[in-house]
Write a structure and sequence with these properties.
The chain has twelve helices and seven strands. The protein is an alpha+beta fold. Among the domains are: 90 residues, Endonuclease Iii, domain 2, CATH 1.10.1670.10; 126 residues, Nucleoside Triphosphate Pyrophosphohydrolase. Strands 1, 2, 3, 4, 5, 6 and 7 form a seven-stranded mixed β-sheet that branches. Strand 1 and strand 2 form a beta hairpin. Helix 6 packs across helix 9.
Amino acid sequence: MQQTQVQTVIPYYFRFLERFPSVAALADANVSTVLKMWEGLGYYARARNLHQAAITIVNDYDGKIPSDHGILLRIPGIGPYTAAAVASIAFNRHFAVVDGNVVRVLCRILNIRKRPSDKKVKARIAQAAAALLKEGQASESNQALMELGALLCLPQKPDCPICPVAPLCEARRQLPDPSILPARKEKSVLPHYDVAVGIVWQKGKVLIDQRPPNGLLGGLWEFPGGKKEAGETLAQCVVREIEEEMGIEVRVKEPFMRIKHAYTHFKITLHSFHCQHVKGKARPKQAIACRWVALKDIETFAFPRANRKIIEALIEAGQ
């Protein structure tokens, strides 16, 4: 939930626990199964790290999640924030947890007008969060401060009249509108790319390939294709990319659907085309695997959200 709203996560959380009720169950699972359960949440590196963390905990710590902050930092996917959160909230260890909610609350209480990304501001916020912890009550103290930001000290419309720490809030006392804090950096314009993919048919099955385990969308399956290059049409892009990725020749028949999608650092328009396999045996050149699959079986594979929309449309159209 570090960058995803609670209401979005809740159904995934319960499904995930039902499928993997223990650390051992998660460690025993195939990473493809874990990615399938995570499908739609984004930030897939977290799913892979969670799986690796479970394996480490089972192999190195007898299946018990360590309570020691230093040991937690050795586990895959756990950095300073997560280590502090697990140690304090789960085990009541004396570590301050500084998430976005806490940063917002403390910037307003202390009337910090510089950006939280500033190194000195980060240190000041960390010191203030640590100073607020009560000995023996780290779990409740951290959760209280996080909930204050989540429920009352909201980004746009803080509910100052009922806030229990309003009398201590310097931003409320000195500023006409506390919601201008924390100071925000100017939004940069995200680059945009046109991406063209082929829905390649052969004997009633479509071709999909699996991305390498590391990097963006690592381990997920997708329709073959890639970024359009300068001077080529979308159809030409599909033919070129599929030849480069799969080593096969295809004929583009007609466009299927177009999807706009945003990632953290860029945006894409995903153009999909029905294609006919002409010649060659599909072999992954850049991907780690490829499959010809019937649409009735495609639900067993984990796809990025934009590709999933194509699949849903294909099934609805009765392709």
